[in-house]
Amino acid sequence: MRPTAASLRWIIIAALLVLWEVLPRIGAISPLFLPPLSETVRAVITDWPEYADALFVSLGEVAVALVFACGGGILAGAVIGSVPALRTLLLPVASSLYAVPLVILYPVLTVWLGIGSESKIAFAAINGFLPTTLATAAGIRTIDPNLVLAARSMGATLAQRVTRVIIPASIPTVLAGLRLGGVLVIVGVVVSEMLTSTAGIGYIVTRYRTVLDSAHVFGAVLLIVLLTLLFDTLARFLERRATAWQPQAQRDRRRAARAEAGIVVPAE
Amino acid sequence: MADLTAAAGDGKIVAGAVVAGGVGAGSIQIRALSHVYAGRDGESPALADIDMTVEPGRFVVLVGPSGCGKTSLLMMLAGLRAHSTGFILCGGRPITGPDPNRIGVVFQEANLFPWLTALDNIAFPLALRHVKAAERRGRALEMLRLVRLEAFADRYPHELSGGMRQRVSIARGLVQDPPVLLMDEPFAALDEQTRMAMGDELLRIWSETRKTVVFVTHSLTEAVYLADQVLVMSARPGRIIDRIEVDLPRPRSYATLSAPAFAGLRDRIWHHIRAERA
Predict the structure, then answer these.
(1) What are phi and psi of B53, to 5 degrees?
(2) Are residues B160 and B218 in the same domain?
(3) Chain A partners within 8 Å of B128 (Cβ)
């Protein structure tokens, strides 16, 4: 029997987990570089209160940053996407800014906002904002203007055209933007916590790294991976629910395009 | 001869009012309509001196060479586009904007909302007017029966064939029971066999509902097959250069296509179009 792509994927994941346990045990890799999986899990369990506190801080920052990044990004993208003059003016700027490594902003943000949650939220929000804006702007432009014309011929007012045509038509795009922005917000929070911080899951990584406690470092890494996967699964579930009306082929195409653009979370 | 009777049927304009027959609910009068586009290279005339009268319940087809402005004229009639001078009356009252109670529009693409089922697409114009859900459903189902798609009420547009989508679009155009239906090359995107079947389907719906239909097409065969009257337009700026009464008997069928009179009428239109294209 030939394994399907999905089962093959699970086999590979299981094999990697087994290797994670076995390679350090047999001495192929020093436990300092890679502690066995079981020790990593034990580290998380024994110090769970510490991890839970850190996760709680990070999740709070992610949630607030998500509102700014995705709320603002979707709104900005919708405006830029629907006003041709703004599009010509701002889209090249936004695309160029996208290429700037935003992490250089972080030291500035800590000077302005301190090393507490505010600077993490600001950095994560900025990190997620531009891609969400660009994705939404691109998506709004794909709305078929003939649908709006048809609605107009049926006597739809401007408000009705927005609420009953433009918004439903852009939901798939907006959700794709939300998923993309959300992942980048998580990255932003973790990175900024690792750089300068006194709390959060990224801070735990840095703190245990400096004392060479690899098991605790990998414990935090494991939690971050799980957190990201959880968010991604949730976002994809929402997306599937909201786009049930689309032909399967169209959904597959969109997913493939996104995968090509490298927007899929690793280890999926 | 047909030209003379059609011209005599046109109203006389007296101080901006039309004194003419056919001011019934489904009548259309266009008087001295012209349109000039303000383009990048200055002004360019698109439509000139359009006069036309459509009696209620008639099936009128507009044909003309590409770019002659027949679709523009239809969009003006639908209240979707402004014109420079002249005026348009429907049911004796001027057209100032889209009015789905007077005029339903069917476009070249079905333009169905992909997130709504066939039934909800048809009910959409009623939802815009806050008609109650039960009544909406009832009237939409009635329209689905009219276009013989009651078995497909819960299908999404992508689950329907091109011809079915266009039938749903016709049902949506008729759901508010407007006396006038405007159709802009509605079958142009369909394959020939489907197009033939859709023509018959449309004639059946028309004979059951007795709407006034103004239909734009490129196809001379389609024009003669469907119409009571064919209006032939010139190249840009578009004006009406011939009004041809089609007195072929109804109901029409495949045999109509091979009648000598059919060929004669089509030749007459082609003669005009060829001259305009040269």
Answers:
(1) -130, 130
(2) no
(3) 151, 154-156, 160, 164
CATH number of A38-260: 1.10.3720.10
Residue to mutate among B81, B128, B174, with most A CBs inside 10 A, is: B128
For residue A164, the chain B residues in CB contact (below 8 A) are: 124, 127-128
Q: Which residues contact B135 (CB under 8 A, 6 or more apart)?
A: B126
CA distance B217 to chain A (A): 19
The nearest alpha carbon in chain A to B80 belongs to A153
Model confidence band, residue B212 (pLDDT cutoffs 50, 70, 90):
very high
pLDDT for position B8: 38
Band (A253; pLDDT cuts 50, 70, 90):
low
Which has more confidence, B77 or A255?
B77
Note whether ipTM > 0.90 here.
no
Whether residue B137 has pLDDT greater than 80: yes
Q: What is the CATH number of the domain that holds B201?
A: 3.40.50.300
Q: Which residue has the tokens 């939690």?
A: A223
* DSSP-based three-state secondary structure for B215: strand
Last residue of a domain, one of B177, B198, B214: B177
Neighbours of B136 (CB within 10 A): 21
Under an 8 A CB cutoff, do B107 and A144 touch?
no
Give the closest-approach CA distance of A86 to chain B in angstroms: 21
Label residue A179 left, alpha or beta by phi (over 0 means left) and psi (-120 to 50 means alpha).
alpha
Mean pLDDT of B82-96: 88
Cross-chain Cβ contact B109/A146 below 8 Å:
yes
